[in-house]
Amino acid sequence: MKKELTRQQYLDLYYYMRLNRAVEDTMVKLFRQNKIVGGLYSSLGQEAISVGSAYALEKKDWLAPMIRNIGALLVKGVPPRDVFMQHMAKYDSPTKGKDGTSHFGDLENLHIVSPISMLGDLIPVMAGVAMAGRYLGQKIVTMTWIGDGGSSTGVFHEGLNFAATQKAPFVLILENNLWAYSTPVKRQVPIENLADRAKAYGISSYIVDGNDVVAVYCTTKEAVERARAGEGPILIEAKSFRRLGHAQHDPAEYVPKEMRAYWEGRDPIELYEKFLMGEKLLDAKGKKAVEEKINTLLDREREFAENSPMPPPEFASTGVYCTGDDCHKIQPRWERPIAEVTPPKSSVKAVWTVEGFGSGKSSGGANAPIHFGDTKNTIEIPASNGKVPGKNGAKPRGKKPVKVGAAGTTGKVKR
Ligand SMILES: Cc1ncc(C[n+]2csc(CCOP(=O)(O)OP(=O)(O)O)c2C)c(N)n1
Ligand SMILES: [Mg+2]
Fold it and tell me: How many CA atoms lie within 13 A of 340 on its CB side?
């Protein structure tokens, strides 16, 4: 680590890494008390990546976090109570208890796009946000994160290629933590450096020590400014290690002990404390003050979250479907009666049946008829013609989709 930042910036990075860890520690306690709804993921040992990269963004920029990026949310300004309440599915949470983990966004103020569970799908979405910003002349940069496992999805490649072709001002942080569930990176990718993939899209990339927060910040800052200046998307591979299992349910016994011990000896917060103390930017008193500030804040935030009520049961069926009455002005063009496609009547009978299917008896072989619609109103067509036109050219009921409207960086390599 090299001294290149202001004193305040160094201390901010320290504060947010400590806050990231303390928020997650608090949630582990809540999980053990059975107060967390759903799974709980951890970024233990990867805090420098979320914090260092998000800290390189400006207020007007956009980000979309994945499961191990709570640190990025905190840097962007999300209060810890929102993170707690979201995980506890409370009424006051950003999604009012409708979703868990960090599945929420804030499009209006903080410019956060909600995570998408399908790994990689945020890449084309954030490339799109970057392009929209450019059309609007906003000079914004967008950012998302992807794991080593997620970087093997098709949409990673499609999305990055698309972003590259469009020269979208987009920065992708690839967190190589050596594991995707129980699969070691070496068994799923035949190359050493995942950043090498950038060559395939003709874009720039960096490799950075993901346990060195100053290196992550400085590298990302440079990438963000290059993207903002019109150079197109940039890929940063941050090398680190997933210190716990995939989520709370996973003891990760498949991880070799020596590997874990090596990375425990490279804890990003401990490394950074040593650096700050060596540079006389932090002393024991300053460290204690940060701890007290975080403890006081999180006691208050946790208490608020715990006292927030669970959503009333009738809330479950509200805000799920847009009927066009209350949330926007575009009216849907319903092609079936609304009552038929909205709860509680949506559990209509299957719209097609194959006679004899599952009975174990042949019902006439390849020429057996297929019935569309319920038994009272079946339309028969010969199965062998491979088409589904319906009798006399009539369209089968229910087949048509319903339309609802429209660092002195240690290990930093520039490539
Ligand atoms: C397209 C897709 N395939 C599979 C999954 C299930 N899944 C969720 S997390 C995960 C492992 C991800 O590993 P990695 O990308 O390395 O991220 P890490 O958990 O290490 O942070 C998998 C397979 C998914 N969410 N999306
Ligand atoms: Mg991984």
Answer: 8
Per the annotation, the verdict on 55 as an active-site residue is no
Average pLDDT over residues 248-253: 95
Residue 29's contacts (CB-CB under 8 Å, 6 or more residues apart) are none
Give the residue, out of 66, 70, 119, with the most ligand 1 atoms within 8 A of its beta carbon, to mutate for a pocket test. Answer: 119
Ligand whose nearest atom lies closest to the CA of 46? 1
DSSP state letters, 155-200: HHHHHHHHHHHHT--EEEEEEE-SEETTEEHHHH-SSS-GGGGHHH
pLDDT in tens, 145-204: 999 999 999 999 999 999 999 999 999 999 999 999 999 999 999 999 999 999 999 999
HSE toward the beta carbon, residue 46, CA cutoff 13 A: 29
Range(s) of the chain covered by CATH 3.40.50.970 = 7-314
> Which residue of the set 226, 246, 260, 371 is catalytic?
246
CB 368 within 8 A of CB 355: yes
To which CATH superfamily is domain 7-314 assigned?
A: Thiamin diphosphate (ThDP)-binding fold, Pyr/PP domains (3.40.50.970)
